[in-house]
Every structure is written in C-alpha cells, then in structure tokens.
Design a protein that fits this description.
Elements lengths: L1 H7 L21 E6 L7 E6 L8 H6 L18 H4 L13 H4 L18 H14 L1 E3 L6 E3 L1 H8 L1 E2 L7 E2 L2 E2 L9 E2 L33 H5 L3 H17 L5 H9 L21 E4 L34 E5 L6 E6 L6 E6 L3 E6 L6 E6 L5 E6 L5 E6 L4 E5 L5 E5 L5 E6 L6 E6 L4 E5 L4 E6 L6 E7 L4 E6 L4 E5 L7 E3 L9 E4 L5 E6 L3 E6 L5 E8 L12 E2 L5 E5 L4 E6 L5 E6 L6 E6 L7 E5 L4 E4 L1
Antiparallel strand pairs: 1-2, 3-4, 4-7, 5-8, 6-7, 9-14, 10-37, 11-12, 12-13, 13-14, 15-16, 16-17, 17-18, 19-20, 20-21, 21-22, 23-24, 24-25, 25-26, 27-28, 28-29, 29-30, 31-32, 32-33, 33-34, 35-36, 36-37
C-alpha cells in the first residue's frame, strides 16, 4: 500500500494538496479535483483551458478605426460601414482628378438598377468614359451624369448665359434653349465626328451622308484654278459611284499581274486627245507645185545588191524632241525623209538631203510613242503610244485619218504590204489584231501567246508573219488564219523584243536578251541558224533595233550603253564600234535604202544622228 500511496499521491511539496490549489494570477488555465476513498489512495483530475490568453487592454485598440488607402482592393480586417463611408483624409492633390485619387471606383451601400436597352459597345464606351473622364451619357433620362466640366471641355461647349443646370450630378440642356453653344471650329484643333448611336439614321448601316454644299457666297471667292480643281474632284467622285462596266472589269482581269508596269487603264469616259500638226518649212510645195513629200529630182530607188560601206563618222545631228527618241524609219524606197517617234508623245518628219531640217510635227498622243510604220508608198504612217491609242496619219497634210484603241498598249504595228487598208498590231493583252481602217472594224484576232507580244515581221513574200513575245516564244502564222503554223520555243531561248528582216527577205535578225543577235533563215523552212550568232554588245534589257545593210553584207545594232556595233554578216566577226549616244541606250538604228554608207541612229538622249 505504501508503494501505491507513493505512486498516486504523497505529502511532498512538489505535489498539489488534496484540498485544491489556490493561485493569485488573474486567470488560471488549470483546475483540479480529488477523488478516492478517505484515508486511502486518491486520484487527482486536472482540466485544461485551450483558449489563448487575451490581454483586455488590446480590445480598445482593435475597435479603433484604422487607416485604409483609397486605392486598396482588399480588406484584411472586418471594418465597419461607417469607416468605409468616411471622407478621404489628408490634403488634396492639386493635379490629380477625384476619380484617380479614389482608384476609379467608390463603394456604395445601396442603390437601384434601371432596365435599359443599349448595345454592348455603347455600354463599354460609356463605362470607360466615366472611369477615365468622370462623366457618362444617360440614354434613359437624357443628359450627362458626372463631371460636367470635362464633358463641356471635351465637346467644345460653353455656357454664355450662366452656369449650366445641374441636378444631383446630372446636366441637361433645356428644350428650345441655346445654353450649350459650340465653340468655333477654328479655335479647336481637333474636330470630332458625331457619336454613332447605332440608330438607322446614324448607325453603321445608315445611308452615306452627303458632304456640305459650298454656298454661292463661298464659291464666289474661289479663283479660276480653284474652281477648276473643285470641278475635277466632283467628276472623280461621281465616277466612283457609277455602275458596273464590262470592259473595265475585263481590263482589270487581263492586266492584274502587270498593271504596275503599264500606263493607266481606260475607263468609259476616256477619249483621245485632239490631234494637231505644224509645218516647219517655208512652204508645203515648191515653185513647180510639187509637194514637200515627193523625193528630189533624180533620186530613184536602187537595187538591194549595190555596194555598201561601213560609216566612219557622224555627219549631222537632229535636235528638236523634248525627250528621248524611241524609233526612227526612212521613207520607203528613196529615204529622202526620216520619221521619228519620241517619248514626248510627238512624231516628226525630217529631211535627209538639202538642209536636213525639221519639216512637220504630229502631236496626238498624251504619252510616249512606242512604234511607227510607213505605208508601202509612204503617204500614210501609223503611230502607237502608251496612251493606248493607235493613230493613222496623212504624211503630207498632217491630218489624223483614224484613231483606234482596244484599251490595250500597242507594242508594234505594221501595214499589210499587199493591201495598205489593213494593218496588224501587237498588244499588251497577249494578242495580235488585224484592223481595216477603211471600214473601222477588227477583222481578225490571233491569240496563242502567253505574254505581251512585242514584234510583228512579214516574210515569204508577205504571205506569212512571225511574232515574238515575252513568253520567250516565236510563233509563225499564215495571214488571216488565227492558228499558228509553227511554234519555236527552245530551252536556251530568251525573249526577243526587236526583230528586223533582211532586205532580200532571206533572213530575220532577232535581238535576244542574252546579249546576242540570233539569225533565222526563212528561205525554204523557217529555222534557227545556230552558227550565226552575233556577240560583243550589251543591251541590258533594252529593245535595241538591229539593221541590215541593203546588200546583206553588214549587220548593225545599238546597245544599252549608247554604242554602235557593226559585224560582218558572213562570218559574224565584229568590225567596228562607235560611241553614238550618251545618258541611255542607242535604241533605234536604220540603214539608208539608197546611200551606200549612211546609217541613222537614235537614243534616249533626244538626238538623231546621221553616220556616213
């Protein structure tokens, strides 16, 4: 028993007394009770309080309202509503708006909502406007809610009669009043458009608004140039709202890949410019009554096999074109006149003998002239320009006989030698056309090329012709038959933008873009002569025209550097080279049909030179 007694209880000072324990502390976390038989062993039961100790002095501190920043988004303590609704403490920032200092929002304890029908974009617009500028538009009751001064400053309004009517933060414009007047537009740099409310009159699907019409008083203050400019703008605006045109749509389709390389297309209002001419000689006929177009006395065409010699020097320069000269051609048979076409849109005829002066100017193109061609008797000639018009001129009188267009750029035009009422021209739409100017109709169309057609060359006694194109092909055709009789397309071929037949009609010289001149034989069968290749010049992408001597002994050509080259046609050996033109290529070259050693050249420096 003593052992048990010592185990469950003792009289030592370290154990609690059976009657309980007293403490002088304010609160006690332990309480005990004794159970067991009297005088015998007993058990001590202790109860533990798990609540933490709280100092009563802290309750007063926690109930005191603390500082809450206006921009805070979270509350870490349970704050009373009176604290949240208390005014903002501290000095006011002089350059910060009220809404910015409040963080953009302010908590409200109560409120109500109104049912309204409005578009989503309009709601977001007013929402962001309110948080950014401090005001919004009330579409239900009308007027503006919030910072009225910002609204008036934004809209450029002012109140000359006094303060604006403000009712509980809402501003309205009295009906029939002019309290809010717009500030002069000159005083405001930015003029904003009226707000789009999504209605039928002002919404995105509303009809287009007409521009304000200039009054007669304002129109009277305009100068003549301003009136003309205003009329042009009105015409352009009216042209944009016209209906569908089939020809314009086809033009866009045909030139969709090369439109950036071509001049502007024609529309339904495009008309040719008025042709004009000017004679520069003393008189259009001499004392014997002979026209200035007739050859001098004693000058007759000669056979093509007369002796020819290489020219050695420049004997004359023709000046008069305002821009570069693109093409030249001697008068058929006699060569006493020289026809030239320029990038300034004019054609000129020059005398080769006597004083070698300008005789007549033909003006009828609004863009550069691309090609020219005399009729077999020289009484008429063709001119095709980048203004997409072909013109037929009377050489003697300068009258424009006919104007033709198919809305495409004519790159080459040639009279049909057996019948000069017909001519054929190559166009930028990959086709060739035969035109009868006496009837004014297109009589045939040739459509087998894949790119713009550059040249037309007759051969085989003018019963057939060859065409070359940017598609690196040469096609052979029978006259008036729209199906080609032969395709010439080899892997090593390049585009051939300039072609010249020999005077006897046995050969065709083709300027190839690989800096060579290739020769095709057309006696029995049309074929490439691989051994006759002329090299040594650099054309650099220019369509430099080659030329044969009248007896087929020499071949000449210009190049992209302005030089003039001569070769022996029999053995392809280079014979001579001269510096002919500056600041551009020597683009055109023709050999005189009568004079043994006379050659004419032209270039983009605006000069025409005679070599002899």
């Amino acid at each position: 028993m003593d052992t048990i007694t010592n185990a469950y209880g003792s009289d030592s000072d370290t154990e609690s007394t059976p009657t309980g324990v007293s403490s002088s502390a304010p609160t006690s976390t332990l309480s005990s009770s004794v159970s067991g038989p009297p005088g015998g062993p007993y058990l001590v039961n202790r109860s533990v309080n798990s609540a933490p100790f709280v100092n009563p002095a802290l309750k007063t501190v926690m109930n005191r309202p603390g500082f809450i920043p206006p921009t805070s988004r979270e509350l870490t303590t349970n704050v009373k509503a009176a604290t949240l609704l208390a005014p903002i403490q501290g000095p006011e920032h002089p350059f910060r708006r009220e809404m910015d200092s409040m963080g953009g929002t302010k908590l409200a304890t109560g409120g109500y909502k109104e049912d309204a029908v409005m578009e989503k974009w309009n709601f977001h617009e007013q929402f962001h406007t309110f948080h950014a500028q401090g005001y919004a538009r009330d579409d239900v009751a009308g007027g503006i809610i919030g910072n009225v001064h910002n609204y008036m400053r934004k809209e450029g309004l002012r109140d000359p009669a006094g303060p604006t009517a403000i009712n509980a933060g809402r501003v309205t414009k009295p009906s029939g009043s002019t309290a809010l007047e717009p500030v002069s537009r000159r005083k405001r740099k930015g003029v904003e458009e009226d707000e789009d409310l999504g209605e039928e009159e002002d919404g995105p699907w509303a009809p287009a608004k007409e521009e304000p019409v200039i009054t007669q008083l304002e129109a009277g203050t305009l100068t003549e140039e301003q009136k003309r400019h205003r009329a042009e703008l009105a015409e352009r605006k009216a042209a944009k709202h016209r209906g569908y045109d089939e020809d314009e749509d086809l033009d866009r389709r045909d030139e969709r890949k090369v439109a950036h390389l071509l001049p502007p297309r024609h529309d339904r209002d495009t008309v040719a410019s008025e042709p004009t001419t000017q004679f520069h000689g003393k008189g259009e006929s001499d004392y014997q009554g002979r026209s200035w177009v007739e050859p001098p006395g004693g000058l007759r065409p000669v056979e093509t096999d007369h002796a020819c010699y290489l020219p050695k020097r420049c004997v004359h320069r023709y000046t008069g074109h305002g821009k570069g000269v693109q093409a030249i051609e001697f008068f058929p048979g006699t060569g006493h006149l020289l026809l030239s076409a320029s990038l300034d849109g004019t054609c000129k005829v020059w005398s080769v003998y006597d004083e070698r002066q300008l005789r007549r100017t033909y003006s009828g193109h609004t863009a550069a002239v691309r090609c020219i061609n005399f009729s077999p008797d020289g009484s008429r000639f063709l001119s095709g320009g980048f203004d997409r018009f072909l013109r037929l001129w009377d050489t003697e009188t300068g009258q424009c006989i006919s104007t033709i267009t198919n809305r495409k750029v004519p790159y080459a035009a040639k009279f049909y030698p057996p019948n000069d009422n017909l001519f054929i021209f190559a166009a930028s739409d990959n086709r060739l056309y035969t035109y009868d100017w006496s009837s004014g109709e297109m009589v045939q169309e040739y459509n087998h090329h894949l790119s713009a057609v550059n040249t037309v060359t007759f051969y085989d006694n003018n019963s057939r012709f060859a065409s070359t194109s940017d598609d690196k092909k040469m096609l052979l055709w029978e006259w008036d038959i729209s199906v080609p009789i032969k395709y010439i397309a080899e892997p090593g071929m390049h585009s051939m933008p300039a072609v010249t037949p020999s005077p006897a009609g046995d050969f065709v010289a083709c300027q190839s873009l690989d800096n060579t001149i290739k020769i095709f034989g057309c006696r029995d069968r049309f074929k490439l002569l691989h051994k006759k290749v002329f090299k040594g010049h650099t054309i650099a992408g220019f369509a430099c025209q080659p030329a044969f001597s009248p007896n087929n002994r020499y071949l000449a050509s210009g190049d992209g550097e302005g030089k003039l080259h001569f070769w022996d046609f029999k053995n392809t050996r280079a014979l001579a080279k001269y510096r002919a033109h500056d600041n551009g290529p020597c683009i055109g070259l023709v050999w005189h049909p009568v004079e043994a050693s006379m050659v004419a050249s032209c270039g983009w420096d605006g000069l025409i030179k005679l070599w002899e």
